[in-house]
Model the fold of this input.
Amino acid sequence: MANPEDPPFSCIRYLPTTEAYDRWAAIYDTDGNFLQALDTIELKTLFPQFLRSILSPRPWRIVDLGCGTGRNTTLLLATPCIEEVIALDSSRGMLEVARSRLHQALHQAGDGVSTPSKEPARGVPRLHMEVFDMLASPVPPKSAQQADGVISTLVVEHVPLPTFFSQVSQILRPGGVLLLTNMHAHMGGISQAGFVDAETGEKIRPTSYAHTITDVVTEARRWGLEVVKAGDEDEAGIKETKVDEIMIETLGPRSRKWVGVTCWFGGLFRKRADQ
Ligand SMILES: C[S@@+](CC[C@H](N)C(=O)[O-])C[C@H]1O[C@@H](n2cnc3c(N)ncnc32)[C@H](O)[C@@H]1O
Done:
C-alpha cells in the first residue's frame, strides 16, 4: 500500500530479523512509526491492568521479552513494586539504544542519586540486560526464569507462535502474567514492520508473520497460558484497535492510510498454576 507520507525507497530488501533491527536501531525511536504511538496509547490502560493482575507476593521480577530500544522497559523501571527488570533482545543495536535510555531513566528514578557501582538507588529496580534470541536458544536465560510477569510488545510478529509461547511459558512462574501486544493480522496481511535505510535508500524488512488472534489464543493455551479478562476487550478477552480519522493527529501522518483498518491487538495471559 503506497502512502505519500512514507519516505520514498528504491527497492525492498529482506534481511534476517536481528540484522534488520541492528540497522533500524539508530532511527527506530524517531521514524514516525505510528504502531509504536498506538501501542503507547493502549499501554496507558493495559499496563496498569497487567500490574493489577499479578498476584504473587511483591516485590516482583519482570521480563521485557524483545525490549527493543526500551520504549516500554521504562514503564517497568518506574514501577515501585518491581525489584528487578530483565530486558532481553536478539539485536545488540537495539539493546545499545536501550542501555543509554534506561540508565538515564534509572538515574532520574533515583532522584539524581548517583550510583557509581552497579547497585541502583534505593527503591529503584535493578536492571539486567542480555542478548537473547528466542529462535537460537530453546531455553530462556537463567536470569529470566521464574519471573512474576513478562511484557512483550510488538515482538511476536517476528517469531513463530510455538517458539514464542514455549519461551514465555518457561520464563513465567506458575500464576505469572504475560502482557502481549502485536500488529493485528488485518494490518499484517497487507504490510509488515520495516524502515527506509537512509544510507542505501532501501526499504529493509525483517521476517514477519501475520498471526491471527485465534491462533495466538489457541497456541498460548497449548503452553498453559489462559487469557485474563481485564476490561474493555472483545469476547476473546483481547482488545483490537482500528485506526480512525480522529486518531491521525495523535498517531502522526503515517497513520492516515490505515484509517478503517484494525492495526493493533493486546491482552493479558496467565500461566496456569498447575504448569
Ligand atoms: C518492533 S520491535 C519492538 C521493540 C519493543 N518491544 C517496543 O515495543 O518498542 C521488535 C523487537 O523484537 C526483537 N526480536 C525479534 N525477533 C526476536 C527474537 N527471535 N528473539 C529476541 N528478540 C527478537 C527485535 O530485535 C526488536 O527489538
User: Anything to note?
Assistant: The chain has one domain: 12-53+60-271. Residues 17-18, 21, 36, 39, 66-68, 71-72, 89-91, 94, 132-135, 153-155, 158-159, 193 surround S-adenosylmethionine (CB under 6 Å). Residues 12-53+60-271 form a domain with the Rossmann fold fold (CATH 3.40.50.150).
